[in-house]
Amino acid sequence: MKILITGGAGFIGKWIVEKLPSETEIVIVDSLDEQVHKTSRQFAPELQARATCIKADVRDIEAYREAAEGTDVIVNLVAQTGTGQSMYEISKYVQHNADGTAKLLELISTLKQKPRRIVLSSSRAVYGEGAFADGTEIYYTKGRRLHELQKGIWEVCNEQGKPLQALPMRETQLANPTSVYGLTKLWQEQLVQNYCDNQNIDAVIFRFQNVYGPKQELGNPYTGIIGIFTNSIVQKNSVELFEDGLMTRDFVFVGDVAEAVVKSALYKQPISSIINIGSGQATTLKELVEIIAHITNKKPEVRISGRFRVGDIRHAVADMSCYETLLGEWKPTPLEQGLREYLSWYLGQVPPSEADLQTSLKEMEQKGLLKVSK
Ligand SMILES: NC(=O)c1ccc[n+]([C@@H]2O[C@H](COP(=O)([O-])OP(=O)(O)OC[C@H]3O[C@@H](n4cnc5c(N)ncnc54)[C@H](O)[C@@H]3O)[C@@H](O)[C@H]2O)c1
Predict the structure, then answer these.
(1) Measured on CA atoms in the order 83, 88, 89, 91, is the torsion positive or negative?
(2) Mutate to test the pocket of ligand 1, among 33, 41, 186 (most ligand atoms within 8 A of CB)
(3) What is the widest separation between alpha-carbon atoms in the chain?
(4) Average pLDDT of the residues in 204-230
(5) 181 flagged as catalytic
(6) How far apart are the first and last CA of the chain?
């Protein structure tokens, strides 16, 4: 079994490599993007020991054409991943994410032997705000309007201004991204699906919720809310919560995500589907801060600032029934247990610069994408 992992030197990629059986031949293609690989522009020693590592942009297909021959499964993890940043560095996100996937598919079309499966790491961002219930009716809304957010109306409301109840995200729901990042993830999905349907290749498209855990690059201020909160709590003993702090996210442990990817890559039978990957549990950001504070023994000052990021959604949680039907029982790591593992790793790392986070927020403010309610 030979597997090609694009973006394999990143956070999730490292975990997938660790969990693949020792007899699997692994090729990693990764540009070691500067924003992600702040501390070192080298492949981690454990990756070099285990895989053939090629430092290349996924769009530079000549750099890895030869290494891609004979691949059974391709796991496409390459992406620029900052939702907020995608709202102003638009062409960068389109080029790396959408064009990156397009180029990879062009390379596959020239291979002597095609892979039998492509596994794509998509995102819950493709759902946008998702679906809502009002009594027995299911709604899709246009999302939250700027003028509502400016008044501090945080929940998604119906036409009469009544808050709607967010439903767990299901793969059959409408894809309706609210960010450029979400759009590019949807394009990745559609490109892979279209290509695979026409070539008789399996397409497994995972829509990950918020993935967290050890090995997440701490120096990238554009991603990873758990890292950002942890830095604030540990370094400053204070933390800012946007909106009213009651937006919810589904935090899924990276080890669980990697196991799902490995399981799908090794799966013997044909399998082609869009599949959610989350813990299935919604947590408010306020609760998240409380758990991190409890584990680190801190009593941070929690500032609910009323600031908000344009393009952010209000609620997200995965419905995991599709995974269970196709791939078997799903037993996610409980949040507190995963956070303990994350925090004990975090405390052994060099703390990232708080100035970088402030710079990323300033950038958003200057571009009119980080605002405050009146
Ligand atoms: N981490 C999450 O919470 C999360 C949630 C939903 C979806 N995802 C998706 O999972 C995938 C992996 O995410 P991650 O958290 O490991 O991100 P990451 O940033 O740690 O890893 C991505 C890797 O891709 C590489 N890369 C970026 N652009 C490249 C290019 N043009 N050519 C070659 N390599 C390039 C980077 O150097 C990096 O090593 C992404 O597709 C992301 O959209 C992640």
Answers:
(1) positive
(2) 33
(3) 61
(4) 90
(5) yes
(6) 58
pLDDT in tens, 198-210: 999 999 999 999 9
Q: What is the pLDDT of residues 48-62, one digit of tens each?
A: 999 999 999 999 999
Nearest to 9 by CA among 65, 36, 95: 36
For position 288, which CATH number holds?
3.40.50.720
Phi, psi of 187 (to 5 degrees): -65, -40
Domain with 143 in it: 2-372
Question: Is the CB of residue 196 less than 8 Å from the CB of residue 271?
Answer: no
pLDDT tens digits for 91-119?
A: 999 999 999 999 999 999 999 999 999 99
Query: CA angle at residue 46 from 40 to 50, to 5 degrees?
Result: 130
Structure tokens at 75: 């796991």
> Total structural domains in the chain?
1
Q: What residue type is assigned to position 71 of the chain?
A: T
Confidence label for 355 from pLDDT (cuts 50, 70 and 90): confident
Token code pair at residue 294: 């409890």
Please give the Cα distance from 132 to 142 (Å, whole number): 11
- Kindly state if the Cβ of 77 falls inside 6 Å of ligand 1: yes
pLDDT of residue 322: 98
